[in-house]
Amino acid sequence: MIGLVYRIYENRLLRSVRKGNIPEHIAIIMDGNRRFARKKGLKPYQGHFFGSKKAEEVLEWCWELGVRMLTLYAFSTENFNRSEAEKRNIFSLLERELMRILKDKRTYEREMRVKIVGRKDMLPRNLLKTVEEVEKITSKHRRHFLNIAVAYGGRQEIMDAVRAILRKVEEGRISPDEIDKKMVEEHLYGDGKYSKVDLIIRTGGEQRLSNFLPWQAANSIAYFCDVYWPEFRKIDLLRAIRSWQFRRSQEVV
Fold this sequence. Notes:
The protein is α/β, with parallel strands linked by helices. The chain has one domain: Undecaprenyl pyrophosphate synthetase, CATH 3.40.1180.10. 49% of the residues lie in helices and 14% in strands. Helix 6 links the parallel strand 3 and strand 4. The longest helix has 20 residues.
């Protein structure tokens, strides 16, 4: 009975959301994997397995709704302070998921481009090799975009962009007067619509952005929900988009 009520509510919510505009770029802070594992009596790092399966599911929901770009916060530069066992577990899961994406026919049917945004030089060699392979093979895709933030820090991203621009100034390729917002955005880790986020979702109950996409989020709308990431449901995504639609309509007024 509960399942039937849930499906009826989900379908009503879906119809309502489809009547409005859909965000082009959604970014998600996938928080709560370790707390979910503790709740289930598992070791904290084991929660990342359930988190990776949820990411796969949410990716499908977003593409079905018409979202063109999704950025997932998987591993920050601060996370390198975690235990070696947990880091190995996360990097192994990421490598497995990238290989799955590479072999999945939907990647090519939907023309999904995959990009890792972050300090790639900090990644283990075997993972970096897989990253380079998936980025190369999907590089010409232009319909959908998946960014995975790994070894990512928002302030670091801006500093790296500034350094890259300054090198061009030193080389005489550009003048300081040419530096503008567009140029900075061209030197961020991502490309395409990456420089502007419409909606940021954070799970796990925390209400902060934790150094995630500070430049891109300047004019975005944030939505915080209490559920742990592995427990994130389609209705949670639909509620976030519905909230975004409502708040945008209020801004227009």
